[in-house]
Amino acid sequence: MRNDIVVLIGKQFFKKTFYNKGLFVLLSLFLIVLSYVTINGWNAFEQHDHIVEHHQEKERQSWEDNPDKHPHRMAHFGSFVFRLQHPLSIFDSGIESYTGNAIFLEAHKQHTANFSEASLSTGLVRFGDLNTAMLLQLILPLIIFFIGYSSVTSEKENGTLKIIYIQGASIKEVLFGKTIGLFLISALFFIPALIALWSISFLETHTTNSSIILRSVLISVCYLLFFFILCCITVIISAKSKNSNNALLTLLGGWLLLFIIIPKTAQVVGNLMYPNLSKIEFRSVIENEVLKQGDSHNPNDSHFNKLRDSVLQAHKVNDVKDLPFNYGGFLMSKGEEQTAKIYNNEHKKLIKTYKKQNSITNSLVLISPYLAIKNLSMGLSGTDFSTYTNFLLQTEQHRYMQSQYMNELQMKFISNKAKGSEGKVHVVKKEYWKSIPKFRYEYIPLSKTINNQLLTMVSLSIWLLVVLLIMTKFSNRFNII
Amino acid sequence: MYSLLVKQFFRSNTVWLAFGIIMILGILSIGTGKQFLTQKQEAIVKTIEKQEKQEELIKKQNQLRENDIGLLLYYLKFSFINPVQPLSGISIGQSDLNSHIQNVSILNLEGQKYDTDLVNPMRLQVGNLDLSFLIIFLFPLVIIALSFNVLSEETEKGTWRMITIQGTSPFKFLLMKLGIRILFISIALGILFLLSKFILGIPFTIDFLYIIMISYVYILFWFSLCFFVILLRKSSNTNAITLLVSWLLLVVFLPILVNNYITNKYPVDEAFTMTIKQRDEYHKRWDTDKKETMDKFYKHYPQFKKYELKKESFSWLWYYAMQQMGDDESQHEREDMYNKIKNRERLSNQMARFFPPLQVQLSMNNIAKTSLKHHINFLDETSNFHENLRLQFYPKIFENQKSSSVNWKNFKPEYFEIKSDFNVFKNVLYIILISLILIGVSVFKNLKYFN
C-alpha cells in the first residue's frame, strides 16, 4: 500500500465534502448544540455541586450543634449523605439521573438512597439525557453515516472508480483513503467535543482523587477508536453496496438496530431472566435471618441471653448493672454487627442480581461498538453502575462506623443504671459529636474501572482489527463496477 | 385498480420486514408489560401477607407488650398500596422508579415516605421497551420507510406520467396508495392492541379506548408529515433524509432538549432541605422544653388537649408529639418542594403541546396512571392514610389501653383510589391541529399540480 495515494484520496474526499454547503450547515448546528450542551451541563453541575455542598454543610452543622446527649439519641439522629457527582458527569451523565441523591444513615437501619432526579421528573425524562456523550454516541455516528454512505458508491455510480483503479490505485488504497478522509471530516465534529471534555478536566481540578486528567485521556482515546471504527464500517458498507440508496438503508438500519433496539432489548431480556427481589421481599429476607440468628431488641432472645451470660461470667458478676461498661451499648454494638453483616450479605446478593441483569448488555459489547463506547464512557466518567454501587458501599461503611462509635461512647460513658436515653442525666459531652469524621466520598479508583471495562476495551480493539483486516485482506472481493 | 395497488404493496419486501419487526418487538414489549405487572402484583401479595403475619406477631407478643401499646406501635407497619392498572403494562411511565407500596409506621412520615423500591438503575436508564415506546419511537420509522417514496418512486421510474394520462385523478391515486399504508399500519397496531388486551388482561374501558385513540391520532400525524414531505415533490433520497431528520429531531433530540431545559430550570433542592428539616425538628425536641412541644402538638390536635403530660420522665404522649413535629414543622419546605415539582409538571405539559411525541407519552402515562402527577397524588393520599392511623391510635396510646383491646384485624392494607381527570380532547387537540395544518398546506400548495 502506498501512503501517498492513500493521502491523496483522503485529501480529495475531505476537500470535496468540506466545501459542501450542507456540511457547513450541519457542522454549525452541531457546534451550536455542543456549546449549549456543554455550558448548560456545566452550569447544572456547578449548581448541583453547590446544592449538595450547601446541604451537606448544613446537615453537619446541625449534627455538631447537638447539645450534650445520650449517644444512642445521636445514633438515631443520624446523618445524611448527599451524593457528589464526578466532574466528568458534565461530559457523560451515565445513570446519574436514576441514582439516589440523598441517603440517611442511622443505627440499626439501612435506608435507600432517595430523591433521584428522575423520581422528581415527568415522563419526559425517559427520552434520555442531554450531554456531550449522547451527541457523540447517538448523533455523530448518524452524521458520519450520512456523510460517508456514498463515499465509494458515488464513485461507482459516476464510473470514476474504474478510472481510479485503472490509474493504478488498488481498492485497498481507495478504502483507506476514503476512511481517512471521512475520519478527518468527523474530526471536525468530535475535536470540539473533546476540547469541551478537556476544558472540563483542566478547570474542574478542585475535586480531589478524581484522576480527571488520566480519565480524560482514556476517554479521548476510546472515542477516537470508536469513530475510526465507524468510519471504516461506513466505507466498507459503501463499497459493498450496489448503490448509494442501499448503502444508506443498510447503515440506517444498522444504527437503529445496534444503537436503539438491541441495547433496550438486552436490558429487558436481562431483567426477564434474572428478576430481583422487591423491597418488601428483601426486607423480609433480612428480618427472617435476624430472627433466626437472634434479635437483640428482644429481651427474651436466647442467642443474646447466652451472650449476656458469657459476658457476666467473664467479668465474674451476676447482674449486667455490675459490669464495668454499659451493657446496653455493648448489646447494641453486637446487634449492629450482626444485622450489618446480614444486610451486607443480602445487599451483595442484590447487586449480584443486578450485575447478572446487566451481563446481557455487557456481553453484547462484542457485537455492538455503541454499547462498548457507552459503557467505557460511563465508566471512565465516573457515572456508571459500579461507581454507584461503590458509593452505596461507602455510605454503609460510614453508617456502621458512626453507629459503632456511638455504641462505644455509650459503653464507656453511660452508667449502667441509666434507664432511658432522655434528658440531661445520662449524656456524653457534645465535643464528641465533632470528633466523628465527616463522610468523605472516594471516587472508585481508575484502575478498578479499567479492570471492570477490560472486556469492553478488548472488544473495541477486536473491532478495529476486524475492520482493518476486512479492508486489507478482502478488498479484492469488492466490486469496482 | 385498488386490488392491484394492494398486490403491489404486499409484493415489497420492506412491508413484510416492517411487519415482522413490529410483531416481534410488539410481542416483546407486551411481554415487558406483563413482567412489570406481575412483579408489581407479586409485591402487593407479599405486602398483604406480611401485614397478616404482623397480626400473628402481635398476638405472640401480646404477653410482652400487652401493657405498652406505645412501644408496640413504634414497631408496627401499615401498608398503603397504589394498585397497578393493567394499562400501565402498555405505558409503564414513571411507575417503575417510584415505589407503589408504602409501608409506614405511625412515626414521623416524612422520613419514610420517599423510600424507593429496589430497581436496577441501569435498567431505568436504558428505559422500558413497552408498547408506548414502540408506538412513539418505532411506528414513525415504519411509516416513513413505507411511504417516503410513494410519489417520487413513480416519477423516478417514469410511471407517474402514465398515471396522469389515465384519466383518474392522480391525487386520488396518491391518496389510495397512502390509504393502503395507513390501513396496513392501523391493522398492525390493532393486532398489537388486541394482543395486549388479552395478555395484559385489560378491560374494555374508556381509558383503554383513549389510549387507542391517541395512538391512532399520533400515527395519522406521522402520515400527514409524510404526506407533506412527499408533496414537496423532491427525490426519494431527499424525502428519506428529510423525514429521518424530522424523526430524529421530534422523537430523539427535541424531547431530550426539552426535558433538560425543564430539569435545569427547576432544580428541586428543596427535597434536601425538607429531608434535613424533618429530622432536625423531631430530634431537637429531645433537648427543648417539653411544654413548647406539647403546645404545638395541642395546637395541631385540639381534641387531644385532655391528655396532659405527667411529670414522669418518659411518656409516649411526649414521644409521639416529638415525632409529629418532624412532619408538622417541615411543612413549609415540603410545600416548596411540591411546588417545584408542580412547576416541572406544568412546564412539561405546556411544552409538550408542540411536540406530538412528548404529548403522546405524557398522555399515555396520564391515562395509565403512571405519571409523576399520580405518584404525587399517591404520596398525598399516603399522608391522609397515615394521619388516619394516627387519629385512631393516638388516643389508645395516650390512654395506655391494652393492645388486646385493639381489633388488629381491622387494619388491612388499604388501596389508593385513583381519580382520573384526563381530558382527551385537550390532549389530542394540538396533534390534530398540527396534522391538519400539514395536510392543508401541502394540498393548497399542490392544487395546480394535480389539476
Characteristic terms for this protein:
heterodimer, A: 481 residues, mainly alpha, 3-stranded antiparallel β-sheet, 3 strands, B: 451 residues, 3-stranded mixed β-sheet, 70% helix
Q: TL;DR of this structure?
A:
Chain A is mainly α and 481 residues long. Chain A is 68% helix and 2% strand.
Strand order of the largest sheet of chain B: 2-1-3
Q: Mean pLDDT of chain B, as a whole number?
A: 90
The SSE order of chain B reads HHHEEHHHHHHHHHHHHHEHH
Question: Span from first to last CA of chain B?
Answer: 21 Å
Summed up, the domain count of chain A is 1
Strand order of the largest sheet of chain A: 1-2-3
Secondary structure tally: strands of chain B: 3
Largest sheet of chain B: 3 strands, mixed
Q: Kindly report the average pLDDT value of chain A.
A: 91
Into which percentage range does the β-strand content of chain A fall? under 5%
Strand content of chain B: under 5%
Shape of chain B: elongated
Using only C-alpha atoms, the radius of gyration of chain B works out to 29 Å
Q: Count of helical segments of chain A?
A: 17
Measured as a percent range, the helix fraction of chain A is: 55-70%
Query: Which two chains touch over the largest interface?
Result: A-B, 91 and 84 residues
> From the alpha-carbon coordinates, what is the Rg of chain A to the nearest angstrom?
30 Å
Walkthrough of the structure:
The complex is a heterodimer of chains A (481) and B (451). Chain A has 481 residues and is mainly α. Chain A contains 17 helices and 3 strands. A 3-stranded antiparallel beta sheet of chain A has the order 1-2-3. In chain A, helix 1 packs across helix 7, helix 8 packs across helix 9 and helix 9 runs antiparallel to helix 12. By secondary structure, chain B is mainly alpha-helical. Chain B has one domain. Chain B is built from 18 helices and 3 strands. A 3-stranded mixed beta sheet of chain B has the order 2-1-3, sandwiched between helices. The mean pLDDT of chain B is 90. The chains are: A mainly alpha (481), B mainly alpha (451). The interface between A and B is large, with 91 and 84 residues.
